[in-house]
Fold this protein.
Amino acid sequence: MEAYLDNSATTRCTQSVCDAVVRTMMEDYGNPSSKHMKGVEAERYLREARETIARTLKVNEKEIYFTSGATESNNWAIRGAALANRRAGMHLITTAVEHPAVLAPMQYLEEQGFRVTYLPVDARGRISLEDLEQALCDDTILVSIMYVNNEVGTVEPVAQAAKLVKKYNPRILFHTDAVQAYGKLAVYPKRLGVDLLSVSAHKIHGPKGVGFLYVNEKAKLNPFLLGGGQQKGMRSGTDNVPGAAGLAQAAKEAYEYLEESTEHLLCLKKRMMDGLHQLSERLSDGETSELPAVVIHSEEGQESAPHIVSAAFPGVRSEVLLHALEDREIYVSAGSACSSNKKLPVSPVLKELHLRPELLESTLRFSFSRFTTPEEIDYCLETLDDLLPVLRRYARR
Amino acid sequence: MFKTLLIKYGEIAIKGKNRHLFEDALVHQIIHALKKVEGEFHVYKMQGRIYVDCLSAYDFEETVGALKCVFGIVGICPVMKVEERGLEALGDDVIEFLQNVYDIDSQTFKVVTRRARKSYPIESMEVNCELGGRILEAFPGMRVDVHEPEIMLHVEIREKIYIYSKIIPGPGGMPVGTNGKAMLLLSGGIDSPVAGYMICKRGVKLDATYFHAPPYTSERAKQKVVDLARQVAKYSGPINLHIVNFTDIQLYIYDKCPHDELTIIMRRYMMKIAEHFAKEAGDLALITGESIGQVASQTVQSLAATNEVCTMPVFRPLIGFDKQEIVDVAEKIDTYETSILPYEDCCTIFVAKHPVTKPNLNAIKRSEQKLSEKIDDLVRTAIETTEKICIE
């Protein structure tokens, strides 16, 4: 049996997404910029894709721009907003646990003379609104706070944060990296007060290499890619029609059955967490160690994403457990790369949670999709039960 | 513009009656190396020289790059080959050659003629003077400097006449296959690929053994070793890589033996297994990348303890090298970048904080007694389950 539990890394395309991509590559392959019929036909796909996506967010389709994925969306949102508004101020706010696609552009802007505040997080990975309030100043022009943390699944208080920011100064732009939220949670930028929102297709059973940026029509944003003037000159480059068609199909399917799939994911998450708790009790039985055999970082309930369970297995290095699971066809992520020689990187996000070193080097992330089955979870738990006693015995002395 | 390359070889030329064996091996290696290069080539030896005729359009850089990986080659000279049509015509050829190869301005030069065909009517010195005169006439800025000329123009008079001035250095050494075959213990580190390269440079064909320990080492670590073997194979030709699953042996040692002796005992079993495959493959020696004192398992005492299990000679070409000297070679042969990729290898996973640096052989043997129950079976299983890949 195979269990793919790494859906926060990427997901498998659905057949209908695949069909949409193939159709726009093989049959309706025109360039939307062409004047002839083939071009008009292709443009229709783009328009429909935009409409479909706009409906899932309850926004205007003119506010959706296709990009090459969330890295481009984040880069564009942050650098484009900073450049367009720098006369209003040079101060930016983000969190210490963002994805590198947010942190790296922030650091780049620091080199260009901007000032950036990195909000700290608590042990669960959540920012505090007080910290945010204190960081705001007259010079602030952009706040970027991720929706769901990709490593532990923590949902950040985006709505309250955006409200607070807008109350302080409505002209400050609010960006959120919604890669791990879109398709899993209902996300409505207008209600949230979010001006810019990044999404990637391949996390929701769409193709790789495509995503979008939602840009509130009132937001002042510079274009990032210059060229042939596609997408109203805001994002040049021949339109990625197959990507857009695949993304739209994936978005449509994700939101069509959102309630059912959320419920399904929550069941899976509970099953996984219950199983890990039981496993921990069994393994820790009779041990004197101060740490239990399994330490779960993710929370239950509304404030944590339904599809991510992050847990540490003290004494077993994450990479070793990952490869042992891989050998049984179970695929997961190592929250932090192993560190037997000090050169290897430890996840900066986990570091921000101030975990003890034993937890830092033994954290795995299990992430689900709506196609994950309870049997896969059970198989994973059984396998962990099988592997952990042996691996724990051979822990490094 | 050059249709012929003259291959210079050093050491081979001083071999006695075996010389033709070495020359044939070199021709064979050159043909093999050029198989991967686009174009049609004719490789042949004639009067103690090896020539590569380029019969079709070819990429000069690509071709020379391939030849630079062939051990035995000391120099690669792009030559202009002309028919014998008298001294006047030869002068024209030389002038044409210089115009094609150089931006002639005010360089110094010297003509070196070699008259291998003694039936040629004019003596070498005379040809030098004549051609020198023609060059001075044609390029008034140029001057003769017989001691340190910027352009050393070689004119070799044989059946045909060969004109060249550049000697691109080759890797030196001896043609692979002229000195038997040996088994390289290849890890993912910096040293072992360099060790393989150095022994191979002396004409030795290579096999290799790699120990992995899933799940403690990853598929990527294995891929890294395959990539390193592929890089070494550019010089050595095909390598039979043996990939041994070492996990159970390692865990068993970890269970039974003192932790600070783990690495030494592990390495003794690695040597035994490598020697088994060496014998099976008809290899006559083992090769390791060890260098004295680099790590705990490479002190003189540790090396002696490891060496004790082998019946074959163990070649350690890096034994007296400093790390930086090894890195320099690794960079030259383009293995460094791959070697430093950060994947766990099986020597580091259970390593003790303070491993023994002066192991006592008797103590080690006593510890190994504790393994007697299962170790032979584990070694046999490891040998039987070994994966073999031919790396081209």
Remarks:
- Residues 258-284 of chain A form the longest helix (27 residues).
- Chain A touches chain B through 18 residues (CB under 8 Å).
